[in-house]
Amino acid sequence: MTNFFKGIDPVRFAPDAGPDTLAYRHYDPDEMVAGKRMEDHLRFAVAWWHSFAWPGGDPFGGQTFERPWFGDTMDLARLKTDVAFEMFALLGQPYFCWHDADIRPEGDSFAESKRNFEEIIDYIGEKMDAQGTKLLWGTANLFSHRRFMAGAATNPDPEVFAWSAATVKNCIDATHRLGGENYVLWGGREGYETLLNTDLARERAQAGRFLQMVVEYKHSIGFKGAVLIEPKPQEPTKHQYDYDVATVYSFLKDFGLEDEVQVNIEQGHAILAGHSFEHELATAAALGIFGSIDMNRNDYQSGWDTDQFPNNVPEVALAYYEVLKAGGFSTGGTNFDAKLRRQSLDPNDLIAAHAGAMDVCARGFKAAAAMLEDGGLEAARADRYAGWDREPAKTWATTATLGEIAAEVEKGGIDPQPRSGRQEILENYVSRFV
Ligand code: 3MF
Ligand code: MG
Q1: Whole domain around residue 89: which residue ranges?
Q2: PANTHER family from the xrefs (predicted)?
Q3: Catalytic residue among 26, 41, 50, 102
Q4: Burial, 341: exposed, middle or buried (Cβ in 10 Å; 0-12, 13-18, 19+)?
Q5: Which of 5, 209, 269, 345 has a beta carbon 3.0–4.6 Å from 232's, enabling a disulfide?
């Protein structure tokens, strides 16, 4: 036991707890909602990078957090692991996620980094066995070290491509070894700053080739988890190739990977792309590539990725409504890709942030499930499109030619009558649930 969370009690479901008690007031893991335990629906995960690796810096100032495990030694990496698992025990969330760089110190060579990584993976594996916390996904950090400043798979230097391939191979191996349920690729620097020095077509082809190798490798080792791409439009690079769900889908189609790769959709990235979270979720579901979510919240004014913990129940409800409509998670889950504000220095801030976020998600999720069960939105939608379920529209949607449709219109009897979209009525309906 470390003493980092000394004096903090495990967070339990206690809807009647007093206002000063940190408790789940909406998240009861065992509550049955839409035929399943809430824990099994929501599949919460803690993100190692924000909670244990991020020092609290911003562009104007460095570290604000003083954590006893900050530093580059293996002993400190083990201490960080101990504290992480102590936090998992306090929260009781079932999953966590890591990048290689979050959990191990960088070595002086590829071989040394790999040794460090594998040693910590073994240590994490022991903790997982003892405690029962599971790995939602693993991923490689191919964006922080300066070698990746011009990209990883899309780098103009083939040696960076090779280094990245070797890194991803080791991270997939480790994810597989720990029984991880997904492997995520976020193209942090897979984009460009200026076309003046960039061969866009070549870089896109490199990214496609890279992903094909990842999928091939996953099958070769028998990894049954999903491979997920995480779209983001910009930041850190000016133009990122995985802009949004639709862009990723066209990329997957181009490289024959649309049945092999799904998406991990992040709330904040959707906002940066000028979409809503639910738009991105609905698009992924429509295209058959919905996988998992990074749950957080962006500041709507700032224009960058603030990675705040979610606190807006109506927004979360609309997002989970799309998740439920898509059939819910299979290998995916709700990863809190969210960090404290840099003034939130106390160990208890970490616990409160996650517990509050889990409660907001639970409350939004229950509202979404109730809305879907009530069926008001689906009935209104079905009614709005009902014309398409009848002839002659069924033929128009399938076999008719433009000329045949024109002939029918010219014959007379087709006289479109505008109908209300009833948006405010539907918004009032949603308000009854959230
Ligand atoms: C950046 C992100 C990333 C990804 C992570 C895994 C550092 O905006 O969201 O977090 O979630 O790299 O794909
Ligand atoms: Mg993310």
Answers
A1: 32-374
A2: PTHR48408, XYLOSE ISOMERASE (PTHR48408:SF1)
A3: 102
A4: middle
A5: 269
